[in-house]
Amino acid sequence: MGFRRYQSLFAWILTVVLTATVTVAIASPVRAQSWMNLLLQGLQVIQLSNLSDQQEVRLGQQINQQLYQQGEFRPHGDRQLQSYINEIGQRLARASSRPNIPYTFQVVDDRRINAFATMGGFVYVNTGLIAAAENEAELAGVIAHEIAHIAERHAVTRMRDVGLSQGLISAAGMRENNIVQMAMQLGFNLPMSREDELSADAMGLRNLVRAGYAPVGMVSFMEKLQRQSGAAPEFLSSHPLTQNRITSLQRSIPSQYLYQGDGLDPQAYSRRIGRQSSAPTLR
Which residues form the signal peptide (predicted)? Predict the structure, then answer.
């Protein structure tokens, strides 16, 4: 059964419940109040197929609160660094294909090389990834990739698909608290699909260029991660093979435009992030 038929069924059920509520109200006001409470609880469900921007942002705020309450993330205390990352993120968000929602960019105190995005415009960047980038264009490439996931609503689509396959979505939809819990579980236990990651690369690259950054930053950061010894960093461990992503990006950028744009000064970047000599870097 498709989502449009689900919505029609829900509308019919709602009509029946409202009719029953009015009928019961005539016979017994007390029972009518109980019926109304059940009805209000039912109205708290959300249809993932046509989630509004406002609903998505509200869910993102709840997910963000849960992440910190449960100790999944620890915010970094350097306000200047937080301001700098927000400056980069907002520049990219304005140039993205979905600039009409509020974006929140947060620095996570974690030396692992990782970045993460949830629905509703929330992007998290680890201090380890910030230190691993050589310049602003490299960092901006990662953030642009995460913004692309939000712009394409990949998290929402993934929850809808998983919810349907596991029978978690009713004719009405899903309750808010269930969506938040599923988002938490999927965000840490189920990677994005290969198609979603390659799509985020392509869209992120376009976003990077529209925002005025040199596109080579996205390519050079992936090449740097690929060259490091040992296992792939967390940022790429569940993503498509790095070389395939690099090759795809290189084919998308005419060689004469690789170095055109901002963000290629490593000294300026080091000053902005307050890089210390002991900070982890990848060469």
Answer: none
The terminus-to-terminus CA distance of the chain in angstroms comes to 53
Sheet holding 104-108, edge to edge: 104-108, 122-126, 115-118
∠ CA 80-84-86 to the nearest 5 degrees?
Answer: 115
Query: How far is Cα 139 from Cα 77, in angstroms, rounded to an integer?
Result: 19
User: How far is it, in rounded angstroms, from Cα 39 to Cα 33?
Assistant: 10
* β partners of residue 116: 124
Measured distance CA(24)–CA(22) in Å, rounded: 6
Measured between alpha carbons, how far is 144 from 215 in angstroms, rounded to an integer? 11
Which residue, among 80, 72, 276, 109, has the nearest Cα to 184 in the 3D structure?
72
Q: pLDDT, tens digit, for every residue of 159-178?
A: 777 666 665 555 455 676 77
By C-alpha distance, which of 32, 108, 97, 95 is closest to 67? 108
User: pLDDT tens digits for 135-152?
Assistant: 999 999 999 999 999 999
Distance CA 211, CA 95 (A): 5
How do the residues of the chain divide into helix, strand and coil, expressed in percent and rounded to 5?
65, 5, 30
Q: What letter represents residue 221's amino acid?
A: F
> Whole-prediction pTM value?
0.77
Task: Tell me the C-alpha to C-alpha distance, in Å, between residue 140 and each of 93, 216, 217, 227.
Answer: 11, 11, 8, 20
Residue 39, token pair as written in the block: 């009805």
SS3 state of residue 183 = helix
Domain residue extents for the chain: 3-43, 51-273
Q: Is 207 helix (H, G, I), strand (E, B) or coil?
A: helix
